[in-house]
Design a protein that fits this description.
The protein has ten helices and seven strands. By secondary structure, the protein is an alpha/beta fold. It has a single domain, classed as Rossmann fold. The model has no long low-confidence stretch (mean pLDDT 94). Strand 4, helix 5 and strand 5 form a beta-alpha-beta unit. Strands 3-2-1-4-5-7-6 form a seven-stranded mixed beta sheet. The two termini are 27 Å apart. Bound molecules: S-adenosylmethionine. The site of S-adenosylmethionine has 25 residues, from helix 1 and helix 2.
């Protein structure tokens, strides 16, 4: 499991972001959550654990997929995220959903407890390789399903990290990956070209090493649309990327935000919209049947 300081930093980042998380008007986690649930093949009546459930971008489509005869438990390190997800589940009248504050690195359930374990834009945050993915295989009954999404780290034609818009890549990448002095977060993707998500083959080898079978990983572009560069910057403050901004001085933050917004504004189409294709990876696998 990850170190205590790193986990505490993630707790801080997401607890702080929870109020505005996925509320900025930029469609991102919703479509990815719905696509992941569809890709996972989870069906009616299944018992599912959603690891790092956040405000429910995966939780609610999974609840719909399993129906009233199923069960979905959403766990998250951040009590603020869980607070919002639990309220939404109640407001939607979803009796099949429960939530709990729990560290997803050490899910406290018996082996074989679930038909499926799913994680939307969460598990990649703290996993460095097969050993940290093994607990999810252990939680599955024989033949049970695992599915997860992450920003794509597959090599692009330019060798850049495709998750960042190409026109601002040089401005933002150093802040995303380079550890700063005294930084507690043990970032699994410090080197974007050398981590377990760097190619489909690496993903397959890692999940196989964790004991999964029938592993598949695909990359699909999500088109992020914003009305201005400033809106994209604001969106990055509403999720895990807020760490980037948190670690800058007020002056540095303002200068970087202005330059990023200026460059993105130059991409505006005739319709006034800025469209940013953003590559997402979806992976699925099964626990062995015997
Ligand atoms: C980018 S958000 C994704 C949330 C949600 N699955 C979605 O698709 O919108 C990552 C989530 O993982 C949670 N998280 C981070 N580290 C965690 C850990 N060690 N255990 C459980 N949850 C964690 C964060 O609190 C946050 O809610």
């Amino acid at each position: 499991m990850g170190n205590v300081e790193s986990t505490a930093e993630m707790h801080r980042v997401f607890n702080t972001a929870a109020e505005v998380y996925d509320q900025s008007g930029v469609e991102f986690f919703g479509p990815i959550g719905r696509r992941l649930v569809e890709f996972s093949g989870i069906g009616t009546g299944a018992s599912v654990l959603d690891v790092g459930c956040g405000r429910g971008a995966v939780l609610f489509p999974v609840a719909e997929a399993v129906g009233e005869s199923g069960e979905v438990i959403g766990i998250d390190l951040s009590e603020e995220m869980v607070k919002y997800a639990a309220k939404d589940a109640r407001d939607r009248g979803l009796g099949q959903v429960t939530t709990a504050v729990m560290n997803g690195q050490e899910p406290d359930y018996p082996a074989g407890r679930f038909d499926a374990v799913i994680g939307g834009f969460s598990i990649f945050i703290w996993t460095h390789g097969a050993a940290e993915l093994k607990p999810y295989r252990t939680l599955l009954r024989p033949g049970g399903r695992f599915a997860a999404s992450a920003p794509s780290f597959f090599p692009t034609a330019t060798g850049k990290w495709g998750f960042l818009p190409e026109d601002v890549h040089d401005l933002l990448l150093p802040h995303m990956t380079q550890p700063k002095q005294g930084d507690a977060y043990d970032c699994p993707f410090t080197n974007i070209h050398n981590n377990w998500l760097v190619t489909p083959e690496a993903v397959e080898a890692t999940l196989t090493g964790a004991g999964f079978v029938d592993v598949e990983a695909v990359e699909e572009d999500l088109l992020i649309t914003v009305g201005s560069g400033a809106q994209w910057v604001e969106w990055t403050r509403s999720h895990g990327m807020r760490r980037l901004w948190d670690r800058l001085s007020e002056q540095e933050s303002k200068e970087l935000a202005d330059e990023v917004a200026r460059r993105l504004d130059a991409l505006r189409g005739a319709d006034g919209i800025i469209t940013l294709p953003t590559p997402i990876v979806y992976m699925r696998a099964r626990a062995p049947r015997d």
